[in-house]
Amino acid sequence: MKGHPIKYSAAEMAWLEDNRLMVISDYQKAFVEAFGRGDVSAANLHSLRKRKGWRTGRTGCFEKGAEPHNKGVPCPPGKGGRHPNARKTQFRKGNRTGQANRNYKPVGTERLSEDGYREIKVHDGLPRQSRWQLVHRVEWEKANGPIPEGMALKCRGDRLNTDPSNWQLVPRAILPRLNGGRRKKHIAYDSAPEEIKPLLISVAKLEHQVREKSKGAANA
After folding, report:
1. How far apart are the C-alpha atoms of 187 and 158, rounded to whole Å?
2. What are the Cα distances from residue 206, in Å, to 8, 109, 167?
3. pLDDT tens for residues 116-148?
């Protein structure tokens, strides 16, 4: 009865201790058959072993390298993973589920970046940050090859126009100058009138060349 301790005879306790390493289901079944104790459940015997500190050597965890007992054995039709309700929710190769499926964008999808540049998804692989590329960069490299180290692309006009002719190579070092400088003393290229943008580029390049020559002379 629930709430009342189960009493065991000395012979029963001796049997239980001698056979404590058995799997709990077999343990309970053998005990009932040996002593006719239909009032003792597997849970009762499990609790008894814990109280007595009888260790079985089993942790309840699947040991690394051990093979599942049902490896290679399919579920019967209509049972377990082959039940119709289970089949409805099973993952199938090529499918995307849950939030990942709702947010998924196929390769070739375009979007606008936070800075207003067009981006295109080029692959689904890793690393994740390389999945989206700037469209103008992709188009420029198709026409002209890889962008040289230390160089960057700067828009001549509308940044949504990704035609290679609308983009020019500039030293990456002049980009801060084109953004107005650290203290915003210069006219920012992107917000400048179209007619003076070429002048801003030329001045920034000239200043860069002067600095590079000065560095070369100092290191000579």
Report:
1. 18
2. 98, 39, 19
3. 999 999 999 999 999 999 999 999 999 999 999
